[in-house]
Design goal:
- The protein is of the alpha+beta class and 150 residues long.
- The protein has 2 domains: 33 residues; 98 residues.
- The protein contains 5 helices and 6 strands.
- The strands form 2 sheets. A 3-stranded antiparallel sheet has the order 1-2-3, with no helix packed on it. Strands 5-4-6 form a 3-stranded mixed sheet.
- The protein is elongated and about 75 Å long.
- The structure holds zinc ion (ZN).
Length: 150
């Protein structure tokens, strides 16, 4: 951060403190060249990831909503809440690490199916029934055959 007064590139930090909401840090600096003082604010940049729905509308990724949909698929199946939390967190991590700021809901659906398959076959099929909107029993059969290779 260049000095406001002389443009020198180096300064020393005299004091750092959180602002009231703790979302940013306020630093009091002194220019190493001219000795004048100025204040900088450092904030964390939060970039929301948008989910592209099948109708092309967008909405922010919502961990709670994803978890709820997985919980419904796992209802009365031998999958613990801890496993569901873990699965949801893994997907969230993948979504935010993907470097894309927009991601298709179908891509997330596939991630869920793949991971859910490892936990419980039937929960995986249930999730697919809600998320893939099969047109017929044949579609469902094709899917069931295909998940064997997931
Ligand atoms: Zn200066």
């Amino acid at each position: 951060m260049k000095c406001l007064f002389c443009g020198y590139e180096d300064s020393k930090v005299l004091d750092s403190r959180d602002t009231n909401n703790s979302q940013s840090i306020r630093r009091r600096r002194e220019c190493l060249n001219c000795g004048k003082r100025f204040t900088t604010y450092e904030t964390i940049e939060t970039v929301p990831v948008l989910i592209i729905k099948s109708d092309h509308s967008r909405q922010p990724f919502d961990n709670a909503k994803l978890k709820k949909s997985i919980m419904i698929a796992c209802d009365k199946r031998p999958v613990s809440l801890e496993m569901i939390n873990e699965l949801t967190d893994e997907i969230e991590k993948e979504v935010f690490n993907a470097k894309e700021q927009e991601i298709y809901s179908s891509t997330i659906g596939q991630m869920v199916l793949k991971k859910l398959k490892r936990l419980d076959d039937l929960a995986c099929i249930r999730y697919a029934i809600v998320f893939k909107k099969f047109e017929s029993i044949e579609d469902l059969e094709t899917f069931i055959t295909s998940i064997k290779s997931l």
